[in-house]
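Render Pyridoxamine 5'-phosphate oxidase N-terminal domain-containing protein in 3D.
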Amino acid sequence: MGKFFDEIPEFIIPWIKEQKMFWVATAPLAPDGLVNVSPKGYEGTFHIANSKQVWYEDMTGSGVETIAHVGENGRITVLFTAFDGPPRICRIFGKGTVYERDTPEYNALLPPEERQPGSRSIIMVDIHKVGTSCGYSIPFYKFDGHRMKLRADLAQKQNTDVMAEEEAWSSQAEEIAIPIPEKGLRRYWRDNNEKSLDGIPGLRYAPNSRARFLYVDPKTIYQDRPSRSATRWISSQTVAAFTLGAVASAALVRVLHQQRFL
């Protein structure tokens, strides 16, 4: 039988922290608007601030429904289910707030060295009700590991921005425009994350923020959790070496082509 609480009961907090994924449901105010449910994963992205407040780190994706809906009306439900052990479902009902990358709230909760690659916002949820139920129909599943493809792709985009930023900021120009490389995160946000499927505004601040990105060490991509050394500021020497390597590789390809080895 289902039970309801005004806050997260203490006995369920350890169970929530053990879960490997959760779902987030939101909807626009329009009666014909699209209701959205998004699965979320990755170790260490969901946080319990206290029994009345939770938040999670929102990574870049092809859509921006949750950010748009929460920005419009704040309504949000977070769902956890047990895939092993005793059956259980837990729903967290609340009012959400979006803190985009480089806002004061985002920076305070997520220092640069603790962010996931491609982190774009924090979704904060002020809880007004928590519901638990049996979950008898939920099947058993064995957890084999997190998929790291998203982290790898976002790290590549983020590092593209890092290279462009280093080149721009190393110039002697008095006014430096925000670099928007074609395959970087800022370009992706502008192309894919500024409006929801219903045309509701999504990301409003992050695509135009001048805050610099941190370089992501490719060796750390496939770790279950990012270490503090996973992201770092990249030096101009590293950028120079990267650029020279790319130029040398291109020159070698041209030479081999001319000699008909390719």
